[in-house]
Amino acid sequence: MAAAAAVSTASSAAVTNKSHLSSSLDKPFSSPSQKLLSLAAKTLPKPYHHHHRTLITAASKNPLTDVVSSKPNPDGRSFDSYFDDDDKPREECGVVGIYGDSEASRLCYLALHALQHRGQEGAGIVCVNDNVLKSITGVGLVSDVFSESKLDQLPGDLAIGHVRYSTAGSSMLKNVQPFVASYRFGSVGVAHNGNLVNYKQLRGELEENGSIFNTSSDTEVVLHLIAISKARPFLLRIVEACEKIEGAYSMVFATEDKLVAVRDPYGFRPLVMGRRSNGAVVFASETCALDLIEATYEREVLPGEVVVVDKEGVQSICLMPHPEPKSCIFEHIYFALPNSVVFGRSVYESRRAFGEILATEAPVECDVVIAVPDSGVVAALGYAAKAGVPFQQGLIRSHYVGRTFIEPSQKIRDFGVKLKLSPVRAVLEGKRVVVVDDSIVRGTTSSKIVRLLKEAGAKEVHMRIASPPIIASCYYGVDTPSSEELISNRMSVEEIREYIGSDSLAFLPIESLNKLLGSDSKSYCYACFSGNYPVEPTGKVKRIGDFMDDGLSGDMDSIDGGWLPGSSKVQKKTILNEVRTS
């Protein structure tokens, strides 16, 4: 009876069906791991050596992406057709800032490696030496962009770094951060994680006044606002610029003598502060970056706070009166690494609890619990422990899939998924299987995974999703499809279950998520689950990926569907007449 009651209370979330800058002089490393160890050896100490809305009823089981056009490669096949199999929201950036260590660039390199999951398309480091800002950026993974000789070109004790994700673009390199600009009072570098929702308006105003933009990134707007500010000293220029931008931003700035960290008043994206044993101050998007370079976590950079580090020490300044925080809940669901502490909570503990909730509220008779690796593993462990069912590795993920690969002339079904995930028949054959994943976006991958498991002999496949249904796009620094492409915005839970072919399907109820978070629940952003945005976007709207940040040039208004019709007025931020130092 208790189990039946649990199923009843979760009826809206569970449906069951039992009937079915390169140099040629750089010395290459034989492997990325050898390269990382070699560079780390020069830096680290010796011990490191040895609610659903049914808008459209599905009439077909064809993937939604079949009706979405994408740019073909020279062979006539779409690169994205393979990588749609990831079918996950993508975190767009990770940032690092280091002050007070003679090997700042090498530490920055290692910290960026720890943040590689937040962006794999480009990486860059800016280092300050003798009051000169030197920048090296490149396209690809951190280990591809930086070599021994390149890091030797970045001496100094102050550095900032950035990794980014973006859709592919022909001129993407110019959009790889950190950006460096010179103006009448010196030079400044910036690395930004987030997205400015009033970017179009600000860029238009700046261009009308003669500003010239070199990139299509919203981050460049911040540099222009700093350059035109008449405030003195430099710190107040940053404050004045931040009073004009709206949306999500966790940023680190480097000047000739200062490292500055800034977080938006809502605290959408994470930013933490730590300190090494030699007193060097470190800022990073996640605590896992601090761990790798042996920096001790001290605290978060607070929403609306500006932290300045220079030879005088660390100063904290209130940027502006900030509203209730709205931190991104997806950091705990998918983006952050399980060993990170984000927004003051352990990511591992959050995900394990999500799985336990699913086992309690949407139980099902099963023989084995498996995960969609890697992001579903911790939630699956929680589900299995709570349900008293063994957890096993039913899917093995390949970590060696490149950006391009050659498909045989005889087409292989579900080619992209099979490249990444291999089923273990010994675990699955004849079994009733619960498979736990972190989210469903378009539904294309889920349908292929279900088919893969059943072809490997699974008797039943029950999908459990460790997040509520995603019904709305994100405008705060996450690359998600437009709302029209999100399957939970188009179909009911039962329609999604039928579409992906699973025997049952359940999502994490939003009410249970709020209950788990307790008194902190109001401080998280749930816009992707509700469509209620803390900061209304006033111009930029995403289609497939973030076209504004992938090297696109030309008139932004010429992109069909790229902008919101009209401009919603957002209440102006309060501008402080006085900035108080705490």
From TrEMBL:
Positions of the Glutamine amidotransferase type-2 domain: 93-312
SUPFAM superfamilies: N-terminal nucleophile aminohydrolases (Ntn hydrolases), PRTase-like
Keyword vocabulary terms for this entry: Glutamine amidotransferase, Glycosyltransferase, Iron, Iron-sulfur, Metal-binding, Purine biosynthesis, Transferase
Cofactor: [4Fe-4S] cluster
Known pathway: Purine metabolism; IMP biosynthesis via de novo pathway; N(1)-(5-phospho-D-ribosyl)glycinamide from 5-phospho-alpha-D-ribose 1-diphosphate: step 1/2
One Gene Ontology molecular-function label: amidophosphoribosyltransferase activity
Chain spans, region Disordered: 1-31, 64-85
Catalysed reaction equations from the record: 5-phospho-beta-D-ribosylamine + L-glutamate + diphosphate = 5-phospho-alpha-D-ribose 1-diphosphate + L-glutamine + H2O
Annotated GO biological process: purine nucleobase biosynthetic process; purine nucleotide biosynthetic process
Stored Pfam families: GATase_7, Pribosyltran
InterPro entries for this protein: GATase_2_dom (IPR017932), Ntn_hydrolases_N (IPR029055), PRTase-like (IPR029057), PRTase_dom (IPR000836), PurF (IPR005854), PurF_N (IPR035584)
Known EC number: 2.4.2.14
Cited PANTHER family: AMIDOPHOSPHORIBOSYLTRANSFERASE (PTHR11907)
Similarity field: In the C-terminal section; belongs to the purine/pyrimidine phosphoribosyltransferase family.
Protein name: amidophosphoribosyltransferase
